[in-house]
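Annual report, structural modelling task.

Input specification for the fe (ii) ion complex:
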Amino acid sequence: MGAETAHHISTTLDTCFQRTYAVGAPDMRRLYENAKRDQWNAARDIDWAAPFDLNKGILADELIDGWGTDALAGLDQGRLEQLNVEFSCWLLSQLLHGEEGAMLACSQLVDMVPGNDAKFFQATQVVDEARHAEVLSRYLIDKCGGRIYPLTPNIRTLFDYILGHGKWFVKTVGLQLLAETFAVALFRMFSETAKDPLLRGICLRILADESRHMGFSILSLPDEIGGLSPGDLSELEDFTREALKLVLTGQFPQEAYEAVGMNATEIEHLKRVRKEVARGSEYAIFRKLFRREMHQTIVTNMKKVGLLNERTTAMLREMGIDPSLSAEQ
Ligand SMILES: [Fe+2]
Ligand SMILES: [Fe+2]
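The model returned the following structure:
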């Protein structure tokens, strides 16, 4: 395909060589203990030999843009089955690139975060994210014929910013608070609705790790955010808005439709139909529930870490997120 498969990001890190070793943050140390206890092995603990039939499809058909509309009427049964595979692999590829980016960000965080409790925990997250990249890439390569689609511009921009930024708490807000909330909402949906049982099992394994990662942001950020200067806080709020936009805007899986032979006119028609269908259908309700759950987690977590204030509340409203959705009062 000739698509770019690597790029470089220049950054300057402030590495903190911490040499106090007594437990300073017991909650963080407990998270580290949980991480050691709950390690799993993607090579051994996933039943790679289980019967698998790519023709049965991977994710739920209802997730595919335009499913059930006349925009896909030109595709025969075989093409529809192929579309499920291409669409699913496109989405899983985005998650795979996100896991790789998460691994890189966490390796920077090992250097940057103050305190050994947080450093030890971040060291475990590096291994977790490596395992997630391993398990998703093995699924796409061994089971799905190597269908790894390129990174979307949105996710690339988000990770360029997370990886290039010089402050650890900005990385943590970008990764553990926002990007992982989005990924968790997707993995949860896949674990409940995917057609392929092997993928459902993989998603459940990943989810068990992700709850710890979100826990890291909830434990590490409140004190840091509470002590920020007005300038740093305002920079963090701006970043939060931009990162949320990138995470929430989503991107159209153009390449998946091209792979089943749809031409530019047919794809344009599909994009229009998709917007019309986005109101009122059962498929729209499915997406609405997903969005609502994700919005609620974002608002709740922003509140927990002290990032929900007058300014960010207005930002959230502008983006169509109801700031009163917080599960915490
Ligand atoms: Fe992950
Ligand atoms: Fe994670």
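DSSP finds eleven helices and no strands in the chain.
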